[in-house]
Amino acid sequence: MQDLQKTLDLIIGYIKGVWVKKRYIMICSWLICPIGFFYVASQPDVYQSSARVYVDTRSVLAPMLRGLALQSNPQEEVSMMVRTLLTRPNLEIIARNSDLDITTTNEEQYENLITSLSRSIRLRRAGRENLYTISYRHRNPEMARTVVQETLDLFVEGTKGNNRKETDSANQFIDEQIDEYETRLLNAEQRLVNYKRKYNTLLPNQGSFYANYNTLSAQLEQTRLTIKETEQQIASLSKQVSASQTKTVDSAVRNFEGPSSFTTRYDNRIKNLEQTLDQLMLKYTELHPDVIETSNLLDSLNEARKQEIEEFIAADSGTATPEKVGSIANELTLEISRLQGQLASLRVRESNYATKVDDLKQKIDFVPQAEAERTALDRDYNITKRKYEGLLNRRESSELARKADVSTESVQFRILDAPRTPKNAAFPNRPLEYTSVLFVGFAAGLGLAFLISQLNPVLIKANQLTALTSYPVLGAVSHLNKKHILKVKRTRLLVFLLSSSIIVGMYAVLMAAEMMQINIYARLLS
After folding, report:
1. Is residue 45 a contact partner of residue 519, using CB atoms and an 8 Å limit?
2. C-alpha–C-alpha distance, residues 338 and 237, integer Å
3. How large is the angle between the packed helices 430-455 and 22-42, nearest 10 degrees?
4. Which run of H or E residues covers position 134?
């Protein structure tokens, strides 16, 4: 309890010490409050205009055109525009469209204007995704609204314009590349034409050189084998003719080797029909008309061959008449003539094949170089053709995307709050600042009075002297002119109250003027 009493006595002592030094409160309040009130009142009104916009990046056509047309990411486009909106070129556009640039007279003022715009225009995300707020402060409320409107227009049109500019630039680049690759493709085709003209006699039109060389060599060997077979047949028939002319049974018996080795004029036709019948049987059944007709013809030829052999055997055995023997000899002679004609044709074919093979043998040393050149030309041509076709596809996709972008915007802007001309100033907050000045003025005076009271204390009670000197106070003598002292105290109190009332009155007048939206500073200047 005693500690609490001591604390209260100490606090009361501090308060009385500050009260004794209250003149410092008046000095500080008069030094701070009028100057502060004047400064706050002289600050110009700054008006703020703002707008809210929602960017809708959803598109109905996007899923439908996926894979058919080139599509950009609308979210990235909006993010890029947000990052580049307050760059110097855009700020210059805003200053020019809002007529702020005409307020400057030199380059330095213009630079200060651009710097001020970059600091004053604020673009920030308002909570949810793709919801943005644009705000700007200016002394002229109409100018504040104009700047916000121009910034909003630039934000909306800039996003669409950048997308179209990028599309136009891409289309222009693709067109240039298509023209370039078209020229390269024409040059590659011309090189192929020149190559074919140059090596027309060296390389075949179809297949490779070595494949044609092997084919011709095989055909030459087959022709030579056929020639040998034909010569053997002619020799055998010649022996049969000689045997029939001598009409010697012994010679006929020696020359005759049996029906299976006997050569007739029907042998080749029978062989060809048998091959034809084999092919037909692979495709059709025995009841097919072609199969039946071929079988009947083959049977008739076999019967004729058999009859010819029997006649020849009968002639050799002595049962044939001379007329029959002469007829058989004539038929054999005709067969020999036919085989000799066929042999001559085969020799011509052999000569042709041999000439071609020799010609290819002479060119075989140049083939690797020619084929390597052809491979390189084909590779360049195919690569250029693929690139050219790919660019054509890209141009078609880009054109489809451009038409889709024209018909329906991939990014849509919804103005939630359009910019308006503000009626009340956003800065300064004079009621708050007047109150702060008043508080600072009196708080500084109280602090100064307390500090001086501690540095130069004044004893109010006798027990304070005892606490300071540790000597007991035996008695107290009152002042003889007590009325004068009381008068001085009252005068000082009145002066303090009057001073404080004037300061508070000034504060009240200024607050009332703010409530009635009266600019005291402008009224005083006018």
Report:
1. yes
2. 11
3. 160
4. strand 131-138
447 forms beta bridges with none
Q: If we measure between CA atoms, which residue out of 334, 296, 329 comes closest to residue 311?
A: 329
- Whether 446 and 18 have beta carbons less than 8 Å apart is answered as yes
- The residues spanned by each domain of the chain are 2-43+428-525, 47-179+407-417, 209-365
Sign (positive or negative) of CA dihedral 444, 447, 451, 454? positive
Higher pLDDT, residue 365 or 352: 352
Tokens for 376, please give them: 């390189």
Residue 318, Ramachandran bin (φ over 0: left; ψ between -120 and 50: alpha; else beta): left
| The two structure tokens encoding residue 446 | 């109280």
Residue 54 is classified by DSSP as: E
Mean pLDDT across the stretch 60-75? 49
pLDDT of residue 33: 92
Superfamily for the 47-179+407-417 domain: FepE-like (3.30.1890.10)
Cβ atoms of 98 and 146 within 8 Å: the answer is yes
Distance of alpha carbon 459 from alpha carbon 272, whole angstroms: 153
* Window from 168-177, 375-384, 407-416, 472-481 with minimum mean pLDDT: 407-416
Measured distance CA(59)–CA(74) in Å, rounded: 9
How does DSSP classify residue 476? -
Tell me what pLDDT residue 256 has. 43
Does pLDDT of 317 surpass 60?
no
What's the burial of 471, exposed, middle or buried (CB within 10 Å: 0-12/13-18/19+)?
Answer: exposed
Q: Is the dihedral of CA 337, 343, 346, 350 positive or negative?
A: negative
The torsion of the CA quartet 507, 510, 513, 519, rounded to 10 degrees, works out to -170
The two structure tokens encoding residue 194? 């020149």
Counting Cα atoms < 13 Å in the Cβ hemisphere of 276 gives 15
Which residues, in sequence order, are CB contacts of 273 under 8 Å at separation 6+? 294, 297, 298, 301
pTM here?
Answer: 0.45
53: phi then psi, degrees, rounded to nearest 5: -135, 140
496 close to 25: Cβ distance less than 8 angstroms: yes
Question: In the 8-state DSSP scheme, what is residue 128?
Answer: S
Identity of the residue numbered 261: S
Q: Quick check: 156 and 391 in contact, CB under 8 A?
A: no
pLDDT digits (tens, 9 = 90+) for 270-307: 888 888 888 888 777 777 777 888 888 888 888 887 88
Average pLDDT over residues 57-85: 58
The position carrying tokens 């008695």 is 475
SS3 (DSSP) at 137 = strand
pLDDT band at 248 (very low <50, low <70, confident <90, very high): very low
pLDDT of 524 above 80: no
